[in-house]
Design goal:
388 residues; alpha/beta; Aspartate Aminotransferase, domain 1; Aspartate Aminotransferase, domain 2; three-stranded antiparallel β-sheet; 13 helices; 40% helix; globular; binds pyridoxal-5'-phosphate
């Protein structure tokens, strides 16, 4: 059978190779510690689970949901934006729910990209920005995120003829995979740039609530003029240990939100209303819950960074997101170094080039594994001698 080019052209999903390597070790009776995948190990909090139980028993929730989401959910999102960022949103027109942020990110391309159009994406990046564009028939122009620039996009690196043709620009801070954060001035600059070239600014804000050392991440919608040109994607997956429940939302310019609603209403019928009620409960969690959850990651972050430094890997502690992104010692490619860790100490990390060629020379370690496994993984890493 001949499949469509969009399927034929798909790169192998990054984590399939990693899962295979783990399975092969397991078959030899070796217990691998995996810092590979970013999927919170901690439980969805009880108030959120209770909302699902109660929500499942309401007959109204047994029916098709509305694509844009329950008015109560969208109103709760608007309140979150006001409380958290001081941004006022009209819940009826400037907020839409998503079946996880990934769904909205992939479908957003269908709102802006026609065959042959250009999207600008950071490199390295969450792969869905590029794949969504490819599915819509467009191509991606990658801008390398440079360590010396704090992994912020340098707009001067984008050729003017590319900017003139581009339909979308993706940004993501706190960033996966680099852990970088963006100051408000960067968002101001991004908005100005996108207005100048009439580009839809799409911010993946999956990690704004997962931050450390007291750092508070801004929303792109706080930037002056952002509501004219920007849409932001949020997720409760990482914030509230809810990857299994698929609760996300997008907000911003009402025409952009409406376009996404029209695309989605022809593809899906919205997120289960009981899950939306879980989302409301998650947004209602007390600030202390989030502080405690983030404190667990912060402790893990500090342990991992300190062991990596001891063995000669120059990792730096990130202020946000769930990953340690670090250059590897000279003399290895990312894949070779990841393979060395697996071969010599049975530890899995993600090779940086899995997030694009700009990730070559780096590895990513996820902080989403239980503390006892982190400790065992670090004992193993401590035995490793790299460089010198
Ligand atoms: C995890 C992640 C997402 C996906 O979130 P879901 O709501 O679970 O779909 C989106 N963007 C980035 C950068 C992520 O790391």
């Amino acid at each position: 059978m001949k499949f469509a080019e969009r399927v034929e052209n798909l790169p192998p999903y990054l984590f399939v190779g990693i899962s295979r390597a783990i399975a092969a070790k397991k078959a030899q009776g070796i217990d691998v510690i995996s810092f590979g995948i970013g999927d919170p190990d901690m439980q969805t909090p009880d108030p959120v689970l209770n909302a699902l139980v109660a929500g499942s028993k309401k007959p109204a929730n047994h029916k098709y949901p509305e694509s844009e989401g329950l008015p109560e959910f969208r109103a709760r999102v608007a309140k979150f934006y006001d409380d958290r960022f001081g941004v006022k949103l009209d819940p009826a027109t400037e907020v839409i729910n998503l079946i996880g942020a990934k769904e909205g990110i992939a479908h957003a391309a269908l709102c802006f990209i026609d065959p042959g159009d250009i999207s600008i994406s950071p490199d390295p990046a969450y792969p869905v920005y590029e794949i969504g564009t490819m599915f819509a028939g467009g191509t991606t122009h990658f801008v390398t995120l440079k360590e010396e620039n704090g992994y912020l996009i340098d707009f001067a690196d984008i050729p003017t003829d590319v900017a003139k043709k581009a339909k979308t620009l993706w940004i993501n801070y706190p960033n996966n995979p680099t852990g970088a954060i963006a100051p408000m001035s960067f968002f101001d600059e991004a908005v100005k740039y996108c207005k100048e070239f009439d580009i839809a600014l799409l911010h993946d804000a999956a990690y704004t609530e997962v931050t450390y050392d007291g750092y508070v991440a801004p929303s792109v919608l706080q930037a002056e003029g952002a509501m004219d040109i920007a849409m932001e994607f949020h997720s409760l997956s990482k914030t509230a240990n809810m990857t299994g429940w698929r609760v996300g939302f997008a907000s911003g310019n009402p025409d952009m939100v409406n376009a996404l609603m029209r695309v989605k209403s022809n593809i899906d019928s919205g997120l289960s209303q009981a899950n939306q009620e879980m989302g409301i409960a998650a947004l209602d969690l007390p600030a202390e819950w989030l502080d405690n959850n983030n404190a667990v990651y912060q402790k893990r972050r500090d342990k991992v960074v300190s062991i990596l430094n001891e063995i000669g890997v120059p990792a730096v502690a990130p202020k946000g997101a769930l990953y340690i992104w670090t250059p590897i010692p000279e003399g290895y490619t990312s894949a070779e170094f990841a393979q060395k860790l697996l071969d010599e100490v049975d530890v899995v990390v993600t090779p940086g080039n899995g997030y694009g060629p700009g990730g070559e020379g780096y590895i990513r370690l996820s902080l989403t594994i239980p503390d006892d496994q982190i400790d065992e993984g670090l004992r193993r890493l401590a035995k490793l001698r790299v460089g010198g």
